[in-house]
Each structure stands twice: as structure tokens, then as C-alpha cells.
Amino acid sequence: MDKYAESTEVSSFRSREEIENILNRNGATQFAYGWQDGKALIAFTANGKQVRFILPMPDRNSREFTHSPERGVVRSKDAQKKAYEQAVRQKWRALAISIKAKFAAIEAGISVFEREFFYDTVLPNGQTVGQCIMPQVQECYLSGALPSMLPMLEG
Predict the structure, then answer these.
(1) 92: exposed, middle or buried (Cβ count in 10 Å: 0-12, 13-18, 19+)
(2) How far is CA 122 from CA 118, 136, 139, in A?
(3) What is the pLDDT of residue 141?
(4) Average pLDDT over residues 59-86
């Protein structure tokens, strides 16, 4: 299966700019972008909520960039750089379309802000909702047991 925007020519900068414009049009009051150690960050405040997306970046030393996909031959440094930059552009396009789609669903009345950005909403302790609840969800699936709805009434 093909990856979304795997052959895009839109630069990472233009995708980030598009994200910022989408957020501005949809009432965001703060916006931040940064990167560190193989990941990038987009954060914003809208509807009184802080939202944070961590975008994992590809490993530039991965075989998919260092070797040709057809014959597995080592690529030139220039070809490695081009393949890596293409993968980075693809990641940014995918994030831009994802955020755009979330706001389109909200605007159309199909969804609400809290549902669309629930997993990535930042809690007061700095964790996102997803970071907080996913271990509990995974435990439920592993154990087959749901947590009690009213734990204070148990034994």
C-alpha cells in the first residue's frame, strides 16, 4: 500500500506553515514548533485546551535511505539525503492533512473539538490524555477485566 504523499514536493516548511494557518483560521491562540532527537513537535492552544502532537521523524541511518529499494545497493550520500528528506516531507504532509481533516469534521458538525483532539490534549501534569490512559486501556485488554466504575464502593 502506498503512503499518503510519499512523492510530495511540498516542503516541510510549507506543511508547517499550512498547519499554522489552519490553526489561526480555527481560533488557536498559541502555536509552537520544535524538534529534537528524531521527533518534531507541534503544539497549540485552542478552545481553552493545550494540544501537542509529537511527530516521529524517520531515522536517517535506516536501510530504507542508505540502500536502494530495488537491489539493496548502497546509495550515494546525495541519494540518501534526498530519500530521507522525501520521507520527512511525507510525514509533515500527513500531519497537515490530519489536522485539516479534524477541523473539517468539527466545522461540518460531524464531531467536536474535544473528540478530535482528545488523545493529544495536554493535562496539567504535562502528559497528554493518550499517554495517561493508554497504559490503562492496554491493561484492560491484557487482563480482560474492566476497571470498576465505582471503586470506592468495593470491599
Answers:
(1) buried
(2) 9, 17, 22
(3) 86
(4) 94
> pTM of the prediction?
0.87
Tally the domains of the chain. Answer: 1
Distance spanning both ends of the chain, measured CA to CA: 52
Residue 87: alpha-carbon gap to chain centroid: 15
Q: Which grid coordinates belong to 102?
A: 479534524
Could you tell me the residue range of the domain that residue 22 belongs to?
Answer: 12-146
**Residue 98 located in a structural domain:** yes
Confidence of residue 77 (pLDDT cuts 50, 70, 90): very high
Handedness of CA 51, 28, 37, 91 (dihedral sign): positive
- Burial of 75-91, coded b for 16+ CB within 10 Å and e otherwise, reads eeeeebeebbebbbbbb
